[in-house]
Amino acid sequence: MSNQTLECSTCDSTGSKPSAVILLAGSFRKQGLEALGECGCEVVLDPSLKEAALEEAISEANPDILVVRSTKVTAKMLDASENLSVIVRAGAGYDTIDVAAASKRGIFVANCPNKNSVAVAELAWSLILACDRKVPDQVIDLRNGNWNKKEYSKAKGLYGRTLGVVGLGGVGKEVILRGKAFGMEIVAWSRSLTDNVATELGITKCDSLLKVANMSDVITVHLSVTSETEHIIDEEFLHAMKDGATLINTSRGKVIDEMALVKVLQEKNIVVGLDVYQSEPTTGESEFTPEIINQSSVYGTHHVGASTEQAQDAIAM
Ligand code: MLT
Predict the structure, then answer these.
(1) What is the pLDDT of residue 14?
(2) Who has the most CB within 10 Å: 38, 96, 243, 266?
(3) Cα dihedral 59→64→70→76 (10° resolution)
(4) What number of helices (H) and strands (E) belong to the chain?
(5) How many CB atoms lie within 10 A of CB 284?
(6) CA 88 to CA 66: how far, in whole Å?
């Protein structure tokens, strides 16, 4: 194998044939590795594998199971494998995997739903609070030796205000729980939200997405990206938002029309917190300079919603 960082460990100490060969093309927590070993699997781990190197590793290790985090899995990579029967996405979204190509080859694709929902909800709340209190700007000003209590005393506060939740999967529900603790009124929209579920959750169901935009002081988006949800947060939605409202997205970049967002930000007073971007790197480190990040009313993080130790332990297990 050309990649020198590749580590092979035959986890079955008896020397008998492993129950499965697993290629882990992404970082993976220790407990999970140990547990796979206890199951008698041979584990090939290389967090740096991507593109041509991943294709080569698939061809050489000939895994039964491929586990990936943000790394893209393409049809060409699948052609490099003889034994592959399952691809596991070590996360909730599987938009980085060519599911159609996998299905065509009889390869199952699995994800780990809800294992990192709390972590993503926590980041959504970090961004909501940061936007209200302008925490990043305050930090920068203080580091530059500027005391500006006058400017930063203008926060609106969250208590009693309306939180609009778009998408009611695991993350949306965790966000709602925390929104109640902040004393917020909660309205929500999702394709599958029923009156009964809304009553159970103690929230108001909106019949349309635009209603969420009209009613909310803070909107947080928790949708997977599909042909139906791509650019669902469009110019019309952004114009329907209240003046001064906040928009948070910790789900997938493509659910927001980023060009429309850049445009509307020139015309309208809204505040934005993003963890995900329309076209973001699939690697851990890279140059990244999208226009959206240079807008003064946008706070951005590095697609780290799921990246807590707790969440990664849960995913690995
Ligand atoms: C997810 O889909 O669970 C997350 O986006 C995982 C990640 O951080 O790559």
Answers:
(1) 55
(2) 96
(3) 40
(4) 13, 13
(5) 12
(6) 6
Strands of 204-205's sheet, edge to edge? Answer: 204-205, 185-189, 162-166, 218-221, 246-249, 271-274, 298-300
pLDDT at position 11: 44
pLDDT per residue over 81-130, tens digit each?
899 999 999 999 999 999 999 999 999 999 999 999 999 999 999 999 99
pTM, to two decimals: 0.92
- What's the 7 CA to ligand 1 centre distance in angstroms? 24
DSSP code, position 149 = H
Please, what is the average pLDDT of the chain? 93
Active site residue 252: yes
Shortest-distance atom of ligand 1 to CA 116: 3
The reply to whether ligand 1 has any atom less than 6 angstroms from the CB of 115 is: no
Owner of token pair 């049809």: 75
Q: Which two tokens stand for residue 157?
A: 């506060």
**DSSP string over 31-52:** HHHHHHHHTT-EEEE-TT--HH
Known catalytic residue at 239: no
Catalytic one of 252, 258, 287, 309: 252
